[in-house]
Write a structure and sequence with these properties.
Elements: H1 3-29, H2 39-51, H3 55-86, H4 88-103, H5 106-117, H6 121-145, H7 149-157, H8 162-200, H9 205-214, H10 218-246
Subcellular location: Cell membrane
Main location: membrane
Keywords: Cell membrane, Membrane, Transmembrane, Transmembrane helix, Transport
Length: 250
């Protein structure tokens, strides 16, 4: 059996084993349903959410925040990362302020965003943007500064313009680091969307989690955690596939 087949078997067997242990623990120790529901109850709650259509508007709302937050945050992160990578002096001036903002706990900044931008969609997107832009910025800086020196010599020999040097050499070479930042940013956007809906939402997957938790509908809460996790994995793997396609020339 080759490595790919072993990996496929592992990916199937591991979740099944975890579910079996979960079921056995609940059954043997008679754990209350509101504390830890059995896997079957979580599966039933998940099916019910999709079958009666409850989840669809909330899923669309969360996806909208993720897409907007990821798009705006990535654009800001890339532009700022490009500027800082090309201008160390600018980085020395504004870098400390950016690091200060990044180290501030976003759960503490969220109430400020709500105060400044209101309880609506804007504050939720701003929170997602605040989580996305820094990893994308860091990846862009690292990528543009990691271009091999011999590529620069080649550009000099070919007398490439600054624009051609950027498009043909620097950006293609920086793709792995930029996508590393984008993949982290995508996960952060998902976390930011859920957190924003926890704090200020009347709609979205985060809101459904709060509703399920406060009404002791634990199977529904577990189902929402599963949906959110799968959503984050799907977005991450989509970016990984795009990165692989862009790097197919290597």
């Amino acid at each position: 059996m080759n490595n790919r087949a072993l990996h496929a078997v592992f990916m199937v067997v591991t979740p099944l084993a975890l579910i079996a242990v979960w079921w056995a623990y609940v059954r043997i120790f008679n754990v209350p349903r509101f504390v830890l529901p059995p896997p079957g109850a979580v599966g039933s709650a998940l099916v019910a959410l999709f079958r009666d259509g409850t989840i669809w508007p909330h899923l669309a709302h969360t996806l909208g925040i993720i897409v907007a937050g990821f798009g705006i945050g990535s654009a800001l992160g890339f532009v700022l990362g490009f500027i800082l990578a090309k201008s160390p002096r600018t980085e020395r001036i504004i870098g400390p302020y950016l690091f200060f903002f990044q180290t501030a706990p976003k759960i503490a900044l969220a109430p400020l965003f709500i105060l400044w931008f209101g309880l609506g969609l804007t504050s939720q997107i701003v929170l997602a943007v605040s989580l996305v832009f820094f990893p994308v910025m860091a990846g862009t800086i690292l990528g543009l500064r990691s271009v091999p020196a011999n590529f620069g010599f080649l550009a000099d020999i070919l007398h490439l313009t600054r624009r051609d040097r950027l498009v043909r050499i620097e950006l293609p070479s920086a793709v792995p680091e930029i996508f590393a930042g984008l993949k982290v940013g995508a996960v952060q956007a998902t976390i930011g969307a859920i957190l924003a809906e926890w704090l200020s939402g009347g709609q979205g997957l985060g809101y459904l989690m709060v509703f399920a938790g406060t009404t002791y509908k634990t199977p529904m809460l577990f189902a929402m955690v599963l949906v959110t996790s799968l959503l984050g994995i799907l977005i991450y793997q989509s970016l990984a596939g795009l990165e692989k396609w862009l790097l197919s020339w290597r």
